[in-house]
Each structure stands twice: as structure tokens, then as C-alpha cells.
Amino acid sequence: MSLTIESAQNIFSKTQVPSPIPATIALFDQLGVDDQLAYLWFAYTEMGRTITPAAPGAARLQLAENLLAQIKQMSSEEQTQVMRDLANRADTPISRSYGFFSVNTKLAFWYELGELMKQGVVAPIPSGYQMSPGVQVVLEATKKLDAGQQITVLRNTVVGMGFDTSSLGPSSYPKPVAEPAFERTAPIVSSVKIDGITEAAVLSYIEAMNADNFDAAINLFTPDGALQPPFQKPIVGRDAIAKYMREEAQGLNMMPKQGICEVQPDGSKQLKVTGVVQTPWFGVNVGMNIAWRFLINPQGQIFFVAIDMLASPEELLSLRRV
Ligand code: 45D
């Protein structure tokens, strides 16, 4: 029997606990645009009193420089309108340019805008803004999340802003830009150990990812293999996975701790591994509890891997299917 991505998506589904992250984002989505911006500002600045993201490198900011320069020259009203347009995913020139940014460039853009708002160069929350009760509800929900979940909510809302450029034809695409490198925040550990796991493809995958060696990681996949990031659809095929990894998986520090492996009658293996991942944006200050669900084919290649955000630290240890 041949493996399918659809069936692979469901491996270990009985061990999964729904994450509070989509529920929080659903509450956020119901807010009006000024409330959304106010919520994000409060969540970001409140969080920043204990954990702040690392400043993006000069090469990264360079990619957002054109937009930031335009915004700096605007009146306060125009600046506020730009932010509303981004949150509304409006079709404006700035919102389109933003829509073409990679995830990390979107984050760097907002990082810089936040700094400019603190300096008074860019308009803060509009004067006379009255917070609706809905904002308080989303803030309370956000407070109950751990730090890894909170930064995921912020990241996902930032990613969702701007005009949805996937609806545009290829002719409107700007020239592709090289993704600047992220500095590693942790030394590379070359001998990966995971309790309960001896599968070479899994150990090699972690080792390669922790060295930003995406070519080595990609070669562990079958040509039709897939990678499913948290809350996303599977990314299918080596080229697509490679592109994704270069854009979004740089500088990650993966610390898998334990796992289980079940051999299937056809010789394929299903593995679930849990552990902690750190993003270069927050380094050792924020740990994200995650699971990898691997489907390895009988030849020892990765056919599928899903990355899931865990609902709570308890879930790190609940690997059994029953
Ligand atoms: O004024 O094995 C707001 C994969 C608006 C690869 C703002 C992975 C208002 C395969 C926007 C709030 C990648 C899938 C201002 C593993 C406002 C694999 C500014 C997993 C100023 C393990 C807000 C990786 C700002 C994972 C600046 C799970 C917000 C990676 C900044 C997760 C927020 C990475 C930042 C995460 C958030 C990174 C920098 C969650 C970064 C989050």
C-alpha cells in the first residue's frame, strides 16, 4: 500500500490536544481594526517588559527600509491609516509590498515600527481611541498562554496582515530577494540523543536543522515528501520544503527530548517526538513546546513530518495512543 499525505496527517491524532492558539486568534479576528491594533500593541509592549525580541540585523531591515522611509515621511493620520490598511489586508501599494515580504521581514518591519512608535516618530494608538470590551477578553485569553504560545499568536497575526499576494498573478511579483542569514543563538550539538528514538532519519534531521544545513535535511525526504508547519497545510516536494526552510527555519534551536516509534505491517514507521524549540528572535528566553510526527517509509526516508505546537508542558510526556 502506498503512503498518502492525507493519511500521514492523521498519525498519532488521538494523542493530540487542541492548542489554545487558534482559539485566541479567532477571538482576535472578531475585533474591529483599531481594536486589533490596540490589542497587538498592548500584548507586544506588555510582553516586552519580560521578554523582548532581538533587534533584526541590518541586512534584514534593509529589505523593509523602503516602506519604513515612506511611512516616516507621512503625517500621523496617514501613518495610522497605513497600519489600519495592513491589519485590514487592504489593497494599497504599501500593503501589497508588505504582502510580498517573508515572515521574518514582516516581523522585522513591525519591530522597527514599534521602535519608531516608542520614539514618537510614528503615530501611537490614535488619540481618543476607546478600547472595546472585546480587547480585554482577548488580552485575558493571551495572559493564560505561555510565552511560546504568546509569541506564536503575535507572529501569526503579523503574518496574516497585508494584502494577500497569493491572489496576484506571477507577473506582479517583485524580484526575489535573498533571505538574510540569522545568527545562531546556541552552539551546534552534533550528537543528537532522543529517549526512545534510534531512527537515523529523525536523528539526522534534527542534527541538520540545528546546523541550518537544509540541503542535508531535504535529502532525508522522499521526492514527494511533505512538511506540515504548525497550523498550516502540508508543504509538498523537496523544492517547496527547501524554499520554506530557507525562509523560516533558520537559526532554530531544536531540543527534542523523548519519543516513541511504532513499526507498521508494511515496514513504515510512525514516530512522535516531543521537545522544545527556540527561535532566534527570542533565543534561550522563550521555549516552545512542540511535537514532531514523522512518517518514515520502509526505505528509511521521511515521507511526512508535522510540527505541532503543544497545548501544555504536560503534553510533552503524553506520547501513548491510548
Ligand atoms: O504597533 O522541524 C504589532 C519549522 C502591531 C521547520 C507590533 C519548525 C502593533 C521544521 C504587530 C503587535 C519552522 C516548522 C507593533 C520546526 C504594533 C521544524 C509589533 C518550527 C509594534 C521545529 C510586533 C519552528 C512585533 C517554530 C515586533 C515553532 C512582534 C518556530 C514580534 C516558531 C514578534 C517561531 C516575533 C516563532 C515573534 C517566532 C518576533 C513563534 C516571533 C515568533
TrEMBL record:
Transmembrane segments: none annotated. One of its GO terms (molecular function) is chloride ion binding. InterPro entries: NTF2-like_dom_sf, NTF2_dom, Orange_carotenoid-bd_N, Orange_carotenoid-bd_N_sf. One of its GO terms (cellular component) is phycobilisome. SUPFAM superfamilies: NTF2-like, Orange carotenoid protein, N-terminal domain. Residues 18-169 form the OCP N-terminal domain. GO terms for biological process: light absorption. Keywords: Antenna complex, Chromophore, Membrane, Phycobilisome, Thylakoid. Belongs to the orange carotenoid-binding protein family. This is Nuclear transport factor 2 family protein.
